[in-house]
Amino acid sequence: MTKYKPIAILFGGVSEEGAISAASARNVFKSIDRTRFNPFLVELTKDNTWKILGEDDAELVERPLHDLRGVGESDRHSYDFEMALVLIHGAPAENGKLQPLLEAQGIAYSCCSMKTSCLTFDKQFTKVIAQSIGVRCAKGQSLHREEISTFHCTLDFPVIVKPNESGSSYGVYKVDNQDGLSAALSDAGKYSDKILVEEFIVGREVAVGLIQLNDDLHVFPITEIIPKGAFFDYEAKYEGKAQEITPASIDDETKIVLHKRAKKLYEAFSLQGIVRIDFFVTKEDVFLIEINTIPGMSAASIIPQQCEAYGWSLQRLSNHMIDAALLSHSVNRTNTI
Fold first, then answer.
1. 175-187 pLDDT tens trace
2. Confidence band for 167, pLDDT divided at 50, 70 and 90
């Protein structure tokens, strides 16, 4: 048995974002501080089992969803986990369904709670709460996928069509006129029961990364995203079809507004761990786009870029993610006794 704390780096899941999740997990795996922790890549398979990987991705053991710790096994192993770095994008982590299972097993985890994740994964609910605390959002309409044939758009074109519950820009379209609306709605409906149609905001897209440890809320240098196409879609995010500038060239007044609103959202939603909040900056104001509770951590992702610009190594960020999760887990256990 190793003397270092075993860390499960969770990736995979059932959403379309499995490949992105794997890239994030492998990048973080390389950064883990081996003087403190003993990391393992752990895949959540499409069959809802845990596959613990060893050297060269050799499968060490497969465990059921309810027993990541291995308490049902007769032998003790160096991969009996009490701590998980969660890098599962989309379901079942970003929508909050995984967290109760980890809590029931006594496993500390690095992402937001079930309640917070359920809220932030629902883009419409997120907008309602954000606007209630003074954070502006795009005007929009919502509909159920069964209402597509009868839907009447009251917004001026162009509009953005997107699934209410999805990530990584799957099913997101810019629609320039009525003729293209039905097809965009139908595709967005493949990813979520509810669909959002929002005004197309002309402005600069920026991303703000944050992480809290103890009483310190660290805000990373802001990234400006300049897509080569009409907006920051899947290809722009993951196929290099966007320019990402960190730190962004933003005036101090706008930077202060972005920091204040990002911090306000972090606190209002009771966010935990590393989070990325995206905004549009216009001449009129700053508008929330979305809250990413499990942002990408691959070599091409925004958070590692911001981390480097902040003067942190990815190892230091990983240490903070683990320490914050262990602290939160300890506090939660104390409060329930």
1. 999 999 999 999 9
2. low
pLDDT-based confidence at residue 41 (cuts at 50, 70, 90): very high
CA-based torsion, 73, 79, 80, 84: positive or negative? negative
For residue 183, CA distances in Å to 123, 143, 175, 189, 194 come to 21, 14, 10, 10, 15
How long is the chain? 337
What is the largest distance, in Å, between two alpha-carbon atoms of the chain? Answer: 64
Angle between helices 114-121 and 123-132 (to 10 degrees): 100
Strand partners, 292: 276
Average pLDDT over residues 292-320: 96
Report CA-CA distances (Å) from 281 to 206, 223, 285.
Answer: 7, 12, 6
Share of the chain above pLDDT 70, in %: 92
- SS3 state of residue 6: strand
Percentage, residues of the chain above pLDDT 90: 83
- Mean pLDDT, residues 13-40: 94
Do the beta carbons of residue 302 and residue 277 sit within 8 Å?
no
Nearest Cα neighbor of 212 from 309, 123, 331 is 331
Task: Give residue 145's identity as a one-letter amino acid code.
Answer: R
Could you give the domains of the chain?
5-111+317-336 (3.40.50.20), 118-136+203-313 (3.30.470.20), 140-199 (3.30.1490.20)
Strand order in the sheet with 37-44: 59-64, 49-53, 37-44, 5-12, 83-86, 108-109
Q: Output phi, psi for 71, to 5 deg.
A: -70, -20
> What is the C-alpha to C-alpha distance for residues 144 and 197, in angstroms, rounded to an integer?
11
Strand partners, 211: 218
> In angstroms, rounded to a whole number, what is the distance separating the alpha carbons of residues 273 and 217?
10
User: What is the rounded radius of gyration, in angstroms, for the C-alpha atoms of the chain?
Assistant: 20
Amino acid at 63: R
Q: Among candidates 280, 258, 274, 263, which has minimal Cα distance to 314?
A: 274
Query: Pairing state of beta strands 204-213 and 216-219?
Result: antiparallel
